[in-house]
Amino acid sequence: MSQRKATSDAGRATIRDVAERAGVSVASVSRVLSGNYPVSEELRRRVMKVVRDLDYVTNAHARSLAGGGTPTVAILINNITGAAFAHVAKGVEGAATLRGWLSLVGTTGDDPERELALVNLMRQQGVAAVILLGGAYDYDEYQLRMARFARSLDAAGSHLVLVGRPPLEGDVPATTVDYDNEGGAYAMASHLLSAGHRRVLVLPGHAELTTAQGRLRGAQRAFEAYGVPFDPGMVRHGPYDYEHGYEAVEAALHDTPDFTAVLAGTDVVAAGAMQALRAAGLRVPEDVSIVGYDDIPLASQLTPQLTTVHVPYEEMGRVALRAVADRREGGAGRRKSADGDHLVLGTHVVVRNSVRPPGRHG
Amino acid sequence: MSQRKATSDAGRATIRDVAERAGVSVASVSRVLSGNYPVSEELRRRVMKVVRDLDYVTNAHARSLAGGGTPTVAILINNITGAAFAHVAKGVEGAATLRGWLSLVGTTGDDPERELALVNLMRQQGVAAVILLGGAYDYDEYQLRMARFARSLDAAGSHLVLVGRPPLEGDVPATTVDYDNEGGAYAMASHLLSAGHRRVLVLPGHAELTTAQGRLRGAQRAFEAYGVPFDPGMVRHGPYDYEHGYEAVEAALHDTPDFTAVLAGTDVVAAGAMQALRAAGLRVPEDVSIVGYDDIPLASQLTPQLTTVHVPYEEMGRVALRAVADRREGGAGRRKSADGDHLVLGTHVVVRNSVRPPGRHG
DNA sequence: ACCCGTGCGGAAACCGTATCCCATGGTTAC
DNA sequence: GTAACCATGGGATACGGTTTCCGCACGGGT
Questions:
Q1: Of A47, A253, B253, B300, which is most buried, counting CB atoms within 10 Å of its CB?
Q2: Where is the HTH lacI-type domain (chains A, B) (predicted)?
């Protein structure tokens, strides 16, 4: 009958319970468990036996309060259902686990309010870093908002990492892991152009989404490079989903039916586009060629298999985590490493079976 | 120059910093923030101003140590990339957020070792519940392992929830959220049989996976009900992925080419099967019908759109979280609610365009 | 004018662990 | 033989909050 509470209480066993039952001090138990202090074999055996008997695990909250604790990174994602994001998350998770780090995943559902709430929540958790995934909507407020996040986190000893979107402007304490979005689009469009296509339906995504903007720019640059006039009327914006792909093609077949290829902003959009073409009695790629972007598994599972741009999502996740880990070890060694704050990974075209030289009109 | 440390130190601001700067006591700040104690308007204003100035957030670890804290649930998943799991996770996350709860996601990669490590990790975190997602490999050791998990978590005031797999045997403190797996397979197979198919290639999944076992049983029962002999030679086991679907059909076309339909254990497997049939010059559904299982978005994006079994994954996630929340509020009210520990959700066939009466052979 | 209830602020205990500092006993060195 | 030392173990304290217990001031009722 201890004064505090009985060992057999409801709730988990504490280190005190273990100490008491093993007849040693609390400090000794802590030492045996963390193993960073010399301890006699006898003591170790006694303590470990009780630990097993009680099925004791240390309280992570208490441990991290006391200074120890496992580093944790938070992954903030718009929609856990998106295949591309899932791969980044997988990369982060894998790299984190490798170092014994923990990772949280939160979803924002494209809601800035919720994003703010989550960032604060993560700040409360004392995470080593907050990793924001996916393209951003470049509203006016966006830069300010992110800068505020970055400074808040930085002040709390944490760090903001942006994955898959352009770096922030100005002197903001954040790391960006990016891929050559525009270059990929340039290469993809070039592929179509060199196959002979001239009238191309472009479905870059939402006009405000940074990802879409980059993909559109890349395509335009390719047209310029080939000396082919770029018709803004052939561009249709919309969300990155199957329905948009379907409807955009449907509409285009009505308005500007002379296109011979579709440059989709995403593999999923390409899938929708493909379906719409089929519904209209057109064959892919005999009548119309299609290309996507992202190279998610779906791309190789479509019929015909989709030519697309490979983006190293999983590696981006790994790189993001490594950046955080490095910075944490480097400590205050180099403040403001003006470079190394922006990592860019390469993309490349994966040629499959969804492109042929134009045949329908051309 | 406080004795402890200056407010402008590196690291986050503490509640003491806020109190000091606002010229009030620590207790008052805590009261203002938690709002469960009467506080004068003047005090509230003073404190809130400082909170904003310092961008203060409470330390979640300290808070949860002191008894308060946000309830947290952990989702353990084999592969974050799987579409079905992602939807369950979404359901859990959504329901958790609705209550202001937090959710963690960890991936096991099908590794029992890692699963153990994660469960312990979550126990350390003091999570309200650990939610295990997806079918289980029913090895001998499995039941013991899970029972141990359940008891460990239970003893620590946490709880084990199994989603998408059969309930544990015996008197184990765990909740199961399940769907009518066998019934769905029964209905799906019946659909095929009533369309006239007799020779059906069955790709249930891994033989040891509970999900696969249930789906196979359902199919067999349907054959019995229709008085059609079930040929074990038409069953091919394998992983739930695209490649398996492809290869299984390829092999079957060589060994037993007289099938007129494919009953795939998963939509993704169905996609692979479809591709293999096409590669062999067969049309879907004119020559061979195909059905899937899960009703992930992919199913409606294939050509032809896939007839499949709808599983309410997202709802399962919501239900799982609700079960945890209810139990937590119910408190010790009803120990051992022998029922209510096993919730079963319904499934139903979604008819699309991948099934026709047999034409090739029949 | 006195008493008591009410409303609100402060001091201190406690949550579970890690770590610093010190005590002890046995060794080694002089 | 004694002093200095190493290897261990214990006690106390800090980490950052929440909460209970107290006390003070103020106001109204009699």
A1: A47
A2: 13-67
